[in-house]
Queue: 4 jobs
Job 1
Amino acid sequence: MGGTDRRKDSRESDNVCITDVSDIKSDLLFCKELDNMAYASIGVVVVAVAVAVAVAVAVAVVAVDVAVVIRTVYFQDILVLMQHAIINSVREFSGFLVDIVVSIPS
């Protein structure tokens, strides 16, 4: 009976009918390579995210430390300036009161 061979090459159709053991081996090796590449790319993404988080945390810690130092230094400077301003204004006001008292005729 002159029947046709129902087996097809995997390149001919989407319906894969593998005819040779070497095709199976090459497909498995290709899949293994894809898996390795997928794992490698996932590893790269995980490492990149970890590095980005570490850098962000380090920058935040340094920024907070710098802000605390600046706030402490400037806050102390502001307090000193305020003390001087209060002392100077009290001196001026007391001098103004002395001038008023002196200018009152006795």
Job 2
Amino acid sequence: MLVKILQTFDWLSAEWLIMGKGSMEKTKPTEKTDDSQQLIEFMKYLREKDEKIELLIKEMTELKAKYDIVSKKLEK
């Protein structure tokens, strides 16, 4: 039922309808700039995490190679 109301009145804020918070009308396009900025910051954060993961994988691979070398020497 709520979905039909929101589909019929596309200008109506779902947050206001469901929770009674905020403005009855959806936010203006100028406020979407904040969302865009948050998305840009989030994408930057994800890229930094990906770089960190790549570094950790490289480090783990190097340590595993060293471990294998030491293990082979100890077996002799």
Job 3
Amino acid sequence: MKNLAFITLFAIITSLVFIGCKKESSSDIGGDQSSIGEVGNNFSISSATGISNVSATVTKLENGISTIHVAGTITDPNIRALAATMSNVVFGTYDETTGNFTGDLKMKFTKEGIADQLDADGKSFTLAKFDGKVGDTYSCENAIGGTFTRTVTAKSDVDDFPYGFYNIKTMT
């Protein structure tokens, strides 16, 4: 369960980067609903450089899509400057003086992977397929024609990454 929480938190943060995607070229993830996307699940990030007090709570699950309310504080001045330029796109609310932000993300969590649902057309962008192989790519195009591509560059076959009191498999 801890490795799912780690993957979920990574997906939430990564989603902020891909918020402008308007279509996806990788196939949508399938599989049964994962319990990690169920209403009431809470997540927190204890260490993220330049961001503190981050929490996320699943507030709604409808048709396999989880709505996650995210809140936190941006402490790094460089990240705050960047956030100020895109606050109307990325955040539900953002206070430039305090760095506090809130927002809602839509994610799909299945036993096969994680996808974000940030596209206005309702299309998803695959963040991770758990059975992914080195070389797999997931792409989407943003509203101004730029393309974001994620490529699996490494995948462990053994539990080799320390996470809390556990060792977990990783994919990068």
Job 4
Amino acid sequence: MPGANCAFYGCSTSRSHKLSLFKIPTIGAADTDYTKSVKRKTREEWLRLIQRTRVLTPELKARIEANNIYICELHFKAECILDGKRKTLVAGSIPTENLPQKKYDAPKQERRVLERKQLEVPKTPPLLDINTFTEQLQRKEIEPWKIVKSNNDEVRLEYYDDVHSIPKYTVIVNSALEFSVFVFNWLVPDQNFVYVENKRSVIHVDIVGLLKYIESSKLCEGLEEDTDVKSVAVDPTEKPNPTIQTLIVRHSVPKVIDPEEPHFQVSIRYRSVGCDTLTSSEHSNSSCKPCESALKKMKRAVKRKNRGSASPAKAKAPLSKCGPKKLQSTVVSTRLQVKDLEDRLQQLQKEIQQHGVGISETLEKDILTIMGGKNLDATPHMKFFWQEQIKLLQSSKMGRRYHPQVIRFALSIHSKSPSAYREIRDSGALVLPSERVLRDYKNYFKPKPGINKENVESLREKTTSFTSVQRYVAVVMDEMKIQSSLVFDKVSGDLIGFIDLGDPMTTFACL
């Protein structure tokens, strides 16, 4: 029978072999959330192993949907099977034994463990202290570098150019044999590549090679010298302002004294606070990354400041704190506002003169009393109606929404006298809905000639709750006039009109 054999490809086990077959796990309604999760994962793993060597044909798909999939006990470990009156599987058991193999399945090779052998490198005698370093330094040729100061604490090496009176490069080696580099007395920051590549120590570094390496490095030219940079740059000796973040510092370097010049000369560079000073020879730009970043921030700040100075000041802003540009823009903006208000005032005065209606002093007092609401509390309907009229007067004709009570009031007037309703509405004394709007509310049932079944059913529903005495009624019919002009029905699109009494024979007889 279908499904009574093992679902694995190549396994011929069936119930006739007297081996247990286990059905694919299914989720029951009484299972707990944990049991549902275990069964769901187990089912997905079973289907993955089966479809690994079998094509998902329509027949196999139908068996999976019908839960008609079995796997024999030969594919499970012994500890996964519970022996009893009937063999069962431990929850979450996955078939791992005697699985079918693909042709291209190959055993995974174990990774080889590589053992790195330590190469014996001939060691040079390390520097023990600053004195040993000084002795070795004096035996080496370090020109054009000079040893300026040498004592038990540090050794100072200086390199001069032909333009400036202070050393271009200064290397100081302390008692711990750690070195620091200065460029025109500007300390190179700790994260510079010179320190990183040489581990900031001269113990295992050739000092001659280190000095040549510093000479071959590029010098950061700093920021471009323009008006914006000069306006925000500060001197290193200035006391920092805690409210302003200092980004650019003026780096002044004195030049060699020239007898022909009346005053001493200096070279000025504008650098960021975190300037690298030294850059590698591979760096293409003339400035380091911190200086480029500081220049971009400064340009953005200048743009924001210019935009702020060009905008008008706020109403409560103190004028003493505003600059000339802001004051000028404020005056221009204020004059435009005054001109706009004057034009609006003249327009209103012109409309009042053309369309205004003169009233007496007594009528004015009565209107002001009504608008003040002193007599409206006594009649809530009048107060509500007056409030709705004010809202309707302030709204556009195309966007008016009438309150249900206003609709009822308009229907009441229109039912008594349509001509009076039209007279009130056309006079403009009250804002009332048009007759076209009232027609939608008035025709609850679509009117037609003859007896309307909807009206009869409505009357029947109302009389179901009447008592026996209330059921005695009298039907009174009054005369009515039917308009005979041609009318277009907007719902059905038909042309209606003329006099229609319901029965064609009666209509023809009355012609």
